[in-house]
Design brief:
Strand order of the largest sheet of chain A: 15-12-14-13-17-18-16
Largest interface: A-B, 94 and 95 residues
Shape of chain A: globular
CATH topology of the domain at 271-384 in chain A: Alpha-Beta Plaits
Distance between the termini of chain A: 35 Å
CATH architecture of the domain at 271-384 in chain A: 2-Layer Sandwich
Strand content of chain A: 15-25%
Oligomer: homodimer
Number of helices of chain A: 20
Structural class of chain A: alpha+beta
CATH class of the domain at 271-384 in chain A: Alpha Beta
Radius of gyration of chain A: 23 Å
Helix content of chain A: 25-40%
Amino acid sequence: MRRWNGWGDETFNLAMPEQGQAFLADRIGNGSPLADASLESVCARVPETRLSPGPELHDLIDTRPETRVRHARGQSLADWLAMRSGEFGVFPDGVACPASNEEVRQLLAWAAKENINLVPYGGGTSVAGHINPVDNGRPVLTVAMGRMNRLLDLDPDSQIATFGAGTPGPLVESQLRAHGFTLGHFPQSFELSTIGGWVAARSSGQQSLRYGRIEQLFAGGRVETLQGTLTLPTFPASSAGPDIREMVLGSEGRLGLITEVKARLTRLPEHESFHVVFFPDWDSARTASRLLVQNRTQLSMLRLSNAVETETQLALAGHSRLIGMLERLLSLRGAGEAKCMMTFGVTGSRQQCQNALQEARRTCKAHKGVYTGTRLGDKWAAKRFTMPYFREALWQMGYAVDTLETATDWDNVDNLLGLIETNLRDGLADRQEKTHVFTHLSHFYSQGCSIYTTYVFRVGNRYEETLARWQKLKTSTSELIVANRGTISHQHGVGKDHAPFLPVEKGELGMLAIRSLCSTFDPDAILNPETLVK
Amino acid sequence: MRRWNGWGDETFNLAMPEQGQAFLADRIGNGSPLADASLESVCARVPETRLSPGPELHDLIDTRPETRVRHARGQSLADWLAMRSGEFGVFPDGVACPASNEEVRQLLAWAAKENINLVPYGGGTSVAGHINPVDNGRPVLTVAMGRMNRLLDLDPDSQIATFGAGTPGPLVESQLRAHGFTLGHFPQSFELSTIGGWVAARSSGQQSLRYGRIEQLFAGGRVETLQGTLTLPTFPASSAGPDIREMVLGSEGRLGLITEVKARLTRLPEHESFHVVFFPDWDSARTASRLLVQNRTQLSMLRLSNAVETETQLALAGHSRLIGMLERLLSLRGAGEAKCMMTFGVTGSRQQCQNALQEARRTCKAHKGVYTGTRLGDKWAAKRFTMPYFREALWQMGYAVDTLETATDWDNVDNLLGLIETNLRDGLADRQEKTHVFTHLSHFYSQGCSIYTTYVFRVGNRYEETLARWQKLKTSTSELIVANRGTISHQHGVGKDHAPFLPVEKGELGMLAIRSLCSTFDPDAILNPETLVK
């Protein structure tokens, strides 16, 4: 069953190898875990519901405390601390699980009539507070889309599939695989996040280099709004004015509820493999990565860890003999202390993969890269969706872990990366606490790339102190990002956590445009209040 | 000098070979040309200007009749007939040529104060009535962006160039070439159209398969609006809410005047070549084209002519000996009467081009394609921007030529293509007139492709009759397109000519979204009235 107070399946646990524990203790000291609240104690604190649906809606809406607890929070670190401490704050007054467009329209009409806030809920994997209810005096109904999870149509010529918006990653892929297709959208949250959520929050997957971001995969669909049904027809491309799809992408529930997604597919590849190259220094590694994408080498994924992430990953990997041998080999070939690990994938026909691999190896070699084959790449592929479980393992040891991500142009990558890491590393110095910080680049574009930084710090002796540590790091770094040409989010969306920083990025007139759309579709601010724009 | 009443440079003429004349006469009968109005006679009919700029704007605004004539019309067939007959209808009251953002802001402020309609003007190449002034009682000032035509900045690492919005295609490329870069945006209007116009009307170039549409190339920039300056920052990608760039793309002057465009570049390729393959039948040809793009073969352009277009092109090419030999060879290899010509390009490193060429040849061969090398491809490349001059040659012979284009999903390509061609072919039967109709597919996507249909008909014995013939064909086919899952335009935008058909495509709520943006930025409808939305 799904964990009520953390990530994923409660029967699955990642253990931290001893060597990894020692590594972290060395860097930031030993942790001391905080006590978790129990589900029972939290359920006991859920207030009476303020919803009183009539008989026609009664069966659709679940107001039991446990259901409301399980839909109250996402997966940000603030959400985690709320769930672990039991200090949830606001709970939704009920959770509706509609099974049809008709039921979604009923819920919208009811919410408009009764002045109820609606919060759309996909996989509940937001790390930016998208699905957290707020207290603005109105009752809150969370609309969980999980029953609308089927492949509704597939056009094999146009390679377009229509899905219910609540279809989670594994169900998207398994239903397509039966027909010989893949969507190819693999965010780290893949196990739980949904295709409608990907569209609503402008998600990007690990193989976006081949398949594109959700913006490129989203061909059209259906949005139920308070003004009626918005149907987005599918065209391969169009010059007929502003693209309405692009207004729905990233709308985060403010315009309406996405109920159906038409997505662009690819035939299952003949071949796929993941390869690892080590570089002796960051400059060579970053340059090689930039050239791979600017030269249009047909890779399906690319990820470049900086020296500290490389060191951390090798230390936490737990295969000490293998890693030891590897490190001796790399050291002999010039990649020592400051080495940086690049993982890349090739996907397609055998011939395409062979060509791309040759091209990539040539570029890497020209920049001092040492190619090590597919062994570590296979490990990456095997564990690609399990990283979120790591938070649990660290938590048990008294550590909190979070990530921050942005994207910027190439001329600014080193500058912004340095600012982010330094700010996080020194951010708790006034508390005499250290932070362990490391970064990778992923999602490469000719223009720039995403910067994905992980930071680990010790929990405080109380929840309040732990939250304060996180808030300081998160807020100051977010300010730094938008002040220095970074987007507030490359792949996690805005939600409530990033909303204060959005105006710097969009500017006054950009915000005016977004607000005018929100108020046109939802003049009474019924839908997902305080998300995206305050 | 630029032709005042048609396409391009007045010293350049395409001659129609004798064989081509015979071909057309055989298909639709001999033409009988109409008499052209003179520039002098048109200038004499230009009314007094209604503008009276104060001294601070006086030097910026040209109210001479000839200037107003030269900025009154675009390049649609209706514009052509207006220019040739001298029946222009509405002229702008003056033409401003600002050289800076500051001057654009001055013009906006003046227009708002004096209640003057502003029409932004790039290269004047619209084929959908974008830049035609309308008579709604207000004076009209056309703002020609041609003085803002410089490369303002180039970031070689991020591969981003900043251009003045009025920079035309050749100046874009020549300024970039000096630095080793290309934008790679080559619409047929390349010679005259501007980078700002491409953004405003969502243009697509002949090599969009490699470089992307203008949507992919437009990284950000600057729009002067009546509410202030809208600055679009550059990010490689972002999940931070709806993308404001996508609201500016296709806004056709309704939100503001685009003054600066930041565009994504590519290094000049090591190699580029264009190749031609003939297929014995449409089915094989269309299937091969679809697979090339769905298999992600790294082509830089792809164009597939149907049998009538293939026949017409070979007949009009004028190299009768070469073509005769080719046809005998193809006939021997199974590509006879119904043969279809595919042209494709490979661009990139030598190795990439070699790999892509191999892959493309393999796919074509598997679908009965006969590869004929680069000779015809070279001819295509040499003439790629001269097709618009053909209208002049046909006009002298008493023929009118126009094109219609759309895009649709693969499952609908044959259906829609058939409907369009049949409707055009039979459209003048009530007048006992024939139309010569042929089509190519270009701009291929995994999901579908564009359909580009050319039609030639005899002019009537009067201008009114000629216009009536065109209106009947254009209107009835446009209705058919949007009623049958086609976009009203894949690459030419909406303008005034396509505006009546847009609501079918966008739906009521899509139109609501667009209208709300327009009225937010331009509540008094000062900017380019009746364009995009009525």
